Amino acid sequence: MEPLILAIDDEEHMRKLLQRALRPQARVLTAATGREGLQVAEKEQPALVLLDMRLPDMGGLEVLRAIKERLPRVPVIMITAYGSIETAIEAMKAGATDYLTKPFDVEELRLTVSRNLQINDLAQQVQLLREELRSRHPEGIVGESEPVRELRRMVEQVANTPATVLLTGESGTGKEVVARAIHQQSARRERPLVVVNCAALPEQLLASELFGHEKGAFTGALARKAGKFEVADGGTIFLDEIAEMPPHMQAKLLRVLQDRSFERVGGTETLRVDVRVIAATNRDLNQAIGEGSFREDLYYRLNVIRLHMIPLRQRKADIPLLVRYFLNKYDLRRRIREISPAALEVMNSYHWPGNVRELENAIERAVIVAQDGVILPEHLPFTAAPGEHTRGDGFIIAFPEKGLSLDEVERQLIQEALRRSNGNRTVAARLLGITRSALLYRMQKHEMA
Ligand SMILES: Nc1ncnc2c1ncn2[C@@H]1O[C@H](COP(=O)(O)OP(=O)(O)OP(=O)(O)O)[C@@H](O)[C@H]1O
Ligand SMILES: [Mg+2]
Asked: DSSP class of residue 68?
């Protein structure tokens, strides 16, 4: 559909000229005064306005501001007299998107108009994408792979329970993102979410950080100080890197989890709080228990609801969405037009040891180093791991906490190879890098043939 343009100019011949010049590409309405122009603008909602700087009834800038107030997104091109560059600059500052100096030729007019219509189109698209992105990820958890959908469902379910949540998963998988999402979706959202990194402080300081201290409790305790549990009253406390908590503190925390009460360091008064506890770790707590560095009873108290973050390498379907999300976040000037297929391929075959955080850093960097608006493989700080190209996704094996059986892995690999080769054993053997007879031998071993 042809766009609607409004031309505001007091000179009859100018209105005619604009109309004639633009007619092939647009429908042009005209107005002879500022006031009339404003009325038409409001009623017809044009896609673009051409505005003469000098009008009989109102100043051009005044009209410009009034239009911007009513239709903030409509591009306005000012028409100024030759030699009045200062006024043009002033107009741009007041929100005009472009200007033309009289006399201009028809080609120049058409070009300026179509360029501004295009920019506006793009701006609207970006706006729409942003809104779409926001409405799709109100909780900040981006991803549409099955593990992420499941995670989102769980977050929704647990948010409004008082239950303690344990978040586990590799570094950079989004444990803090999920902790914030749980808080945001709970009835506690108006109250604070207090984050404590249990690895950051030595035992004595951690105690005072969590539970507060009385004046004079230790050297340097000049005044009474409230602890994080007090501050978080009515809200949520997020205990990050819980595996690093010193044993003595673990005992204290256990008590808080049992009856939500504690004393300040150096104090005798027992305080009671209403706090939702979320803990996180990227370590294997069962192993820590085995090594004697983590209390088993505390583990059971924390592990009421467990949410495990799946590493990015096991949900590569989320990579394009995450890339788009981080581009939106870091490419503020919208310079990146495209991610080359080769760069996407590299991202797809990479094993992402640092998970989403690593992807986020890679995009932030690529936005800076990709000069001509296209992200290429050389803009990424890593290359695909050798061999993974030919093997494709899903074959980087993660060790589950309980360990795994090599026999079982072999059986599953054979099954997968046969599936991909549609049962053709020669092809399957090639996929596995073994001879056909070696494959047959193994299939017999696993009773698959
Ligand atoms: N699903 C996701 N959607 C959007 N951003 C994410 C997602 N997962 C992680 N991120 C981003 O990746 C970065 C790392 O996430 P986060 O800090 O939550 O990881 P973590 O699991 O707590 O890591 P660590 O164990 O190292 O503390 C953050 O900038 C976060 O915003
Ligand atoms: Mg974290």
From this structure: H
Q: Which of 145, 170, 176 to mutate to test the pocket of ligand 1 (most atoms within 8 A of CB)?
A: 176
Q: What is the pTM assigned to this prediction?
A: 0.61
Centre of ligand 2 from the C-alpha of residue 392, in Å: 29
* Rounded Cα–Cα distance for residues 93 and 132 (Å): 30
- 278-328 pLDDT, tens digit per residue, is 999 999 999 999 999 999 999 999 999 999 999 999 999 999 999 999 998
Among protein residues, the one whose CA lies closest to atom 31 of ligand 1: 177
The arrangement of secondary structure in 312-391, i.e. its CATH architecture, is Orthogonal Bundle (1.10)
> What is the DSSP-derived secondary structure letter of residue 279?
E
Q: What is the pLDDT of residues 249-269, one digit of tens each?
A: 999 999 999 999 999 999 999
Q: Is the CB of 141 under 6 A from ligand 1?
A: yes
Fold of 406-445: Arc Repressor Mutant, subunit A (1.10.10)
Closest by alpha carbon to 188, among 271, 276, 56?
276
Q: Which fold does the domain 4-133 belong to in CATH?
A: Rossmann fold (3.40.50)
Question: Is the distance from CB of 439 to CB of 428 less than 8 angstroms?
Answer: yes
Testing ligand 1's pocket by substitution, the residue of 171, 177, 241, 315 carrying the most ligand atoms inside 8 A of its CB is 177
